[in-house]
Amino acid sequence: MKQYILKSIAVIIVISLLNSCSKKSLDFVPQGPPVAATFWKTEGDAMAAYYSLFNPQNAYEEYYGRGYMWYVDAGPDMVVGRNNSSAANIKNFNPGAATASYVQDQWKMRYLVIKRSNDIIKNLPGMDIDPALKNRILGSAYFMSGLAYFELTYTYGSDNAGVPIVDTAGVPGDYYIPRAASAKVNYDYIAGLWTKAAELLPFFQALSPADYGSPHKVAVWAYMSKMLLYEKEYAQSENYADSVIQLGQRQLQPHFKDVFSIAANWGSEYIWTMVSNTTGGSELPGVMLENKGWGKYNGWGYFQPTKELYDAYQPGDERREATILKFGDHFTFFGEDRVYSSTNSLTGYQFNKYMEPFSYPDLLHVNPNGDFPTTDLNVPLLRYADVLLIKAEDELMQGKSADAEINMIRNRAGLTSISGATMADLKLERRCEFAGEYANTYFDLVRWGDAKVACSAPLHGANGAEVWPARSFDPSYMNVWPVPQSEIDNSGGVIVQNQGW
């Protein structure tokens, strides 16, 4: 599975059959299922369909490169590092967020994954192939469909409207269907998908190294726990978190900085990740790199940490230096020792989490094409530390002690244990642990009801100067993002905008 990016022939075959699109254009209109007479016959067909599930997140730079991170960027821990009106509209919760190019395709890309998953779910059961392989591919389709719906739902869904549910039967002749009545309807549907996925998928330990990156049972349980936390179903969420924890197959890396190393791509903390290499995957490391990379590489200079984030770390917290580069810090860049400085950084900081691939000489672990700056570092989407803090939050919300889980995170960061941990402690640990990650600390603020206060204060750079003015956050409608305007326009009004946007 870690080689799926390289399976170009199989991907091209299935992409042509499964209504795909070019890297820069996502205008796809389903035209029915693949031709049964020529496809869904052989194990090769099944594997081509399987690889197609993962192609969108590798082929389209916004999936887990910039686009999805713009939503996380809305919080107080980072700012848009370059002059960019579309990105500023998102950061400032302006109406222009509905038409911002960086997030315009998030909806389409995930429905493309859902479409391909549905094709597998509909056609694979009738194929005469190895039963174990069939289960793994079918389980992967259920998992990937659920993950796409989950990301869509917490991004765009609310009590007033969910996102459209396109089941395996599809909608002949009409891709656009109305939105679900609420996010709750979506979450119930996702739970059904993931229940089936968990039944079919193997444990990670049962996968061969060639299949690392494939969906597995523990990833399903971990995401179920996270979704149930979002639904405030704390007891159920805790049960799924316990399923992961008590199994004993996952544990924290000994040192926080080790999590963000190529050697730990499949380490003990791995649960689910954006598989990457020098030809595909997440561009986030290059996106966060110094603009123009001090003349050595085409870094893009986005998503710069704020002083507010830097100051949130307690003295002695090893995560601060592992997460943030500040002026005067030493680091290795393409085999040479450098002292961090910048004439480009708006804040005077840079995220350090994803810098390891750039420490090696001669572009060994970096895409030579700086216009597509992927690396050999897998970018975490959900890791074991998240499961521990999900359980901790579940416990606190049920009036239980969460000291054990919170102290595991603190001790790994070089901090002393605390007793009587509160939600304030939990919130701080999530902020310091997951800054700059797709764990989405901005959405944490939204679901806790803290976004209005957090976004109403100006943001500052390392020298104390204001770099981003205070914003106005109205939780009556800004708790969800606007549906991309292109979806509303193309649907002829079948898909409606979120209230207030």
What does this structure look like?
With 501 residues, the chain is mainly alpha-helical. Among the domains are: 4-225 and 480-490, Serine Threonine Protein Phosphatase 5, Tetratricopeptide repeat (Alpha Horseshoe); 284-364, no CATH class. It has 20 helices and ten strands. A two-stranded antiparallel ribbon has the order 1-3. Strands 2-8 form a two-stranded antiparallel sheet. The longest helix has 26 residues, at 131-156. The radius of gyration is 22 Å and the shape is globular. The protein starts with 7 loop residues before the first helix and ends in an 11-residue tail after the last helix.
CATH class of the domain at 4-225 and 480-490: Mainly Alpha
- Large-scale geometry: globular
The largest sheet, given as strand count, sense and whether it forms a barrel, is:
2 strands, antiparallel
Looking at the structure, the CATH topology of the domain at 4-225 and 480-490 is Serine Threonine Protein Phosphatase 5, Tetratricopeptide repeat
Percent of residues in helices comes to 40-55%
Helices and strands: which structural class?
A: mainly alpha
Radius of gyration: 22 Å
Q: What is the total tally of β strands? A: 10
Main-sheet strand order equals: 1-3
CATH architecture of the domain at 4-225 and 480-490: Alpha Horseshoe
Mean pLDDT across the residues is 91
Strand content: 5-15%
Report low-confidence residues grouped into runs of 5 or more: 2-33
Individual helix count: 20
Distance between the termini: 40 Å
One letter per element, helices H and strands E, the order comes to HHHHEHHHHHHHEHEHHEEEEEHHHHHEEH
